[in-house]
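Homework help board

Subject: predicted structure for assignment chain

Our instructor gave us this sequence and asked us to write out the predicted structure in token form, then describe one feature. I got the tokens but I'm not sure how to describe them. Can anyone check?
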Amino acid sequence: MRSYSRKNDVDLSLGIGSNNANQPFNQSATRGNHYGIEASWRPSPRFALAGWAGYVDAQQLSGGDAKAGIWNSGVTFAFPDLFGEGNVGGLIVGVPPKVTRNDIKENKDNATSVHVEALYRIQMSDFISVTPGVYMITNTDHNKDNGTTWVGVLRTSFNF
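My token output:
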């Protein structure tokens, strides 16, 4: 996929990466070539494994001609029908979008954040599920000066 972000409207990682990954050249117009690969495998009815890796080749289009490389990756483990039919346990481990190369040296991330998430979807009925979970992110914003962030979540889904 190819993207183009105008000046003052740059967000290459859709807000899920570090500040540098979202705007590798600050507010300069930016072009991004996005590449990705993903795979999934379900060796049994009670276990599924999936993973992905992505790369963005970014180029500054105004105010300079810098280039940057942005990586992300992850792996998921799913356990369908765990402790009951329709329920799903899950574990996700990944690296949010991170600038690994940037001609603007101060906009290169200085550490690696790791996202670890555990969740359990409880199927309450054919139409309602509740999913409690917890996740942590180390070196928040891919910055070695930032600590670990912990978040608890509770999602309710209604299907019609």
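Reply (TA_rk): Your tokens look well-formed. For the description, you could write something like this. The helical segments are 19-22. That's the kind of observation they're looking for.
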